[in-house]
Amino acid sequence: MTEPGQRRLLLWLSLLSLAFGYIEASVVVYLREISYPEGFRFPLVPPPAHLLWTELGREAATLLLLFSLASLLSRDKLRRFAIFAYCFGLWDLTYYLVLKLILDWPASLLTWDVLFLIPLPWTGPVLAPMLVAAALMAAAVFILRLPEGAPSPSVPSIGR
């Protein structure tokens, strides 16, 4: 892909990811208002079952949406991964930024959160998904800058 083509792709992927991160954070603002009117903190009080299943469905739909976008934009598996990774990373960073702007949450990068529910609930400090998101985006940009049709970078094996 040409340099202008790469920039155009990243611009549109960025706009989609920023918008989607805002939508996702907005949903969480409402969920917290409904499920945690006294404030979101650990240990968590489990939400009603129907809200938990709705949340699991929303997370699965998020992954499907990002994977579908990547699949529509490339047939190459590595480029598809890169598109997914870039969008996932920017979406996640935007999500936390919007929560900070709207709710003034998290208090710090070490504040704990429910990071994801699929396949099982993951919890940890907000810093963890932010570092993963940044690494995913950096790797994605590296991959997307490779000439199309170039051999995929490989990781040397250790041992034999």
Explain what you see.
The protein has 160 residues and is mainly alpha-helical. It has one domain (3-145). It is 65% helix and 6% strand. The chain is built from four helices and two strands; from the N terminus they run αααββα. The protein has helices spanning 3-35, 49-73, 77-103, 127-145; strands at 112-116, 122-125. A two-stranded antiparallel ribbon has the order 1-2. A hairpin with a 5-residue loop joins strand 1 and strand 2 (122-125). Helix 3 runs antiparallel to helix 4. The longest helix has 33 residues, at 3-35. The mean pLDDT is 91.
Beta-strand residue fraction = 5-15%
The helix/strand series, from N terminus to C terminus, equals HHHEEH
* Cross-sheet strand order for the largest sheet: 1-2
Number of strands: 2
Secondary structure topology:
Layout: H1 3-35, H2 49-73, H3 77-103, E1 112-116, E2 122-125, H4 127-145
Antiparallel strand pairs: 1-2
Task: Write a brief caption for the model.
The chain is mostly helical. The chain contains 4 helices and 2 strands; from the N terminus they run αααββα.
Features:
mainly alpha, two-stranded antiparallel sheet, 4 helices, 2 strands, 65% helix
